Amino acid sequence: MPTPLEQKIRDLVNVNGPISVADYFALCLADPEFGYYKTRDPFGHEGDFITAPEVSQLFGEMLGIYLVQSWQKHMPQGPIRLVEIGPGRGTLMADALRVIQQTQRDQFDQMTIHMVETSPKLRDTQAETLAAYKDKIQWHDTFEDVPDGFTLLVANELFDAIPIRQFVKTDTGYRERMVTIDADDLLTFTVGVAGIDPELLPENHKAQPIGTIVEIAPARANVMASIAARLAEQGGSALIIDYGFLAAGFGDTLQAVRKHSYDHPLASPGIADLTSHVDFETLMHISHAAGSHIHGVMHQGDFLVGLGLLQRAGALGHNKDHDTQQEIRSAVERLAGEGEGKMGELFKVLAISGAPIQLVPFIASETISNEENHPN
After folding, report:
1. What is the C-alpha separation between 269 and 357, in angstroms, rounded?
2. I want to staple 244 with a disulfide (CB 3.0 to 4.6 A). Which of 90, 114, 180, 277 is the partner?
3. What is the C-alpha separation between 113 and 101, in angstroms, rounded?
4. Which one, of 293, 284, 290, 289, lies nearest residue 349 by Cα?
5. Residues with Cβ < 8 Å from 22, sequence gap 6 or more?
6. pTM beyond cutoff 0.85
């Protein structure tokens, strides 16, 4: 039995022909009637996946420490816009604000909080989570709606949910990957006629075998350029946290998650989360071109430990019972550890700012790394 969104997609294909992966991706997540983020709360054990803020308060607290540091290094005059794009349940913001309010009252008093969220359901959840700060919060549909001013921005697991385009190498060059209906009346992938500018392909694209897939993300590029340009013009810094790779390359990273398990990307439109890996090398190039300073990109585990994760975990567990201490240790391992089911290596953290300040734990001069390649 097809999902309501699958039936809608079938109708579109029957009328207009195959649709691009980018259009399919966008419909799955943001269709106003049946889109995944328009109809459900996907977070937590009862949802489809668990994000870092839901693992432990430690994650949001470390980001709070980073935001305080950024404010101290910039020392801006006038109002501060604290912005989160894609704020989930509001858990990260609540934990970060607790740290800011406790450690830097001046910063807290000067800031207004701006949540960029399009889902009415999630806005309601965020309002409940952040009820203590209701007089300081505004919600916006887009980042461009956030008022001008010095900006401290966080985007955790945002870019992986912004649609991508996929191109497949054929005998006649790279052609766009599309979604259509097969002979058994099921959604399937096919290859369209649209090509791609070779300038957008990795350098060794000619050497790749037939069937190779390459992903580009114009919509992600636009969002990153908007963030970086604002910081360059008005001051501030941004943290981009997501899973992905450090060097652009080849491979199919489109994936779906449902009830904490992987699903086929075409199996459950509208009721499974759809994502792909983030190309951090490209995000850095875009940020630099827009005028922002690049502090670098590093593994989430190194970032959190560099900010004092272990010390904070020790303080949180001091004089607690054994079960509580074990829970804290497990959370630290999930957030900063390596291997299956852990976020420390898979997730990356990119930091940019409008001025070349020094921000811990990033080193003073960071260059784009090619040590870790795109999955093949």
Report:
1. 44
2. 277
3. 13
4. 284
5. 163, 164, 165, 219
6. yes
- Tens of pLDDT, residue by residue over 60-98, are 999 999 999 999 999 998 889 999 999 999 999 999 999
Q: Which domain holds residue 47?
A: 1-376
Cα–Cα distance for residue pair 256/273, rounded to 1 Å: 5
- Asked if residue 84 lies in contact with residue 158, where contact means CB atoms within 8 angstroms, the answer is no
- In three-state secondary structure terms, 239 is strand
Report residue 184 as tokens. Answer: 């058994």
Q: What is the CATH number of the domain that holds 242?
A: 3.40.50.12710
- What is the identity of the amino acid at 19? I
Tens-place pLDDT, residues 17-69: 999 999 999 999 999 999 888 776 666 555 566 789 999 999 999 999 999 99
CA-to-CA distance for 29 and 25, rounded, in angstroms?
Answer: 7
* Number of domain units in the chain: 1
Are 34 and 4 a contacting pair, CB within 8 Å?
Answer: yes
